[in-house]
From TrEMBL:
Keyword Transmembrane (UniProt): yes
Protein name: Lycopene cyclase domain-containing protein
Source organism per UniProt: Desulfoluna spongiiphila
Membrane-crossing residue ranges in chain numbering: 17-35, 42-61, 81-103, 124-144, 150-176, 188-206
Keyword Transferase: no
UniProt keywords, alphabetically: Membrane, Transmembrane, Transmembrane helix
Length: 209
């Protein structure tokens, strides 16, 4: 087991690391969603939840990689955190992604057919935001906030970080946003979250994550 994995495991779901800065961040997340709910802008709310649901899924399989290899997660977040939920997922990352999904879909033009630099705008923003996330993750890794211990998930080979780490988040979030009805959105988002929580319950009960 790598030193970073040992550090993360030691702090996993340890409430003694609580910091009061978590509370204003939580209030900001609540504010972001309450504004959209007040406008009855359900496509944005549900797209944001779809985004975090996709992240939740990634964090689950990352925890399973750590459990079954006994070496390290694909990515870890062992640095200071108010609460580490899963081996590569802390409460600050959760809150960040909850806002990011909303911010991303609010950037989308109302006209789905509009092109930007000759590229369909949905594809343009998917590539733009995914690339930006990969760059930020590389910076976080460079300063030690995020750890990578597998050669195929690194700054020298970032394609998997792009294709698996972030691309699906934006693809699914934009897809949910652009659905015709809220009924469709609720059905998809509830399915994603139900699957995530079911996996978390099973894998957590088995002490695999």
């Amino acid at each position: 087991m790598t030193p970073a994995a040992q550090q993360g495991l030691a702090a996993l779901r340890d409430t003694s690391h609580f910091q009061w800065t978590l509370i204003p961040i939580l209030l900001l997340v609540i504010y972001v969603y309450s504004v959209e709910m007040g406008k009855e802008n359900w496509k944005v709310v549900l797209a944001g939840l779809a985004f975090i649901g996709m992240d939740f899924f990634n964090e689950l399989w990352n925890g399973l990689v750590f459990h079954f290899t006994g070496h390290a997660p694909v990515w870890g977040a062992p640095a200071d955190s108010s609460y580490i939920i899963l081996i590569g997922w802390n409460i600050e990352i959760l809150f960040m992604f909850m806002v990011m999904g909303v911010a991303a879909v609010k950037s989308l033009p109302a006209d789905k057919n509009k092109k930007i630099l000759g590229v369909p705008n949905r594809s343009f923003y998917i590539i733009l935001f995914t690339t930006a996330c990969v760059v930020v993750e590389c910076v976080l890794n460079a300063i030690g906030a995020l750890t990578w211990d597998w050669a195929w998930w690194s700054i020298k080979f970032p394609i998997f970080i792009f294709l698996i780490g972030y691309l699906p988040f934006f693809v699914v979030s934009f897809w949910v946003h652009d659905m015709e009805t809220d009924r469709q959105r609720v059905k998809v988002v509830s399915s994603i979250l139900a699957f995530d929580f079911a996996c978390a319950a099973v894998f957590g009960g088995l002490d695999w994550i």
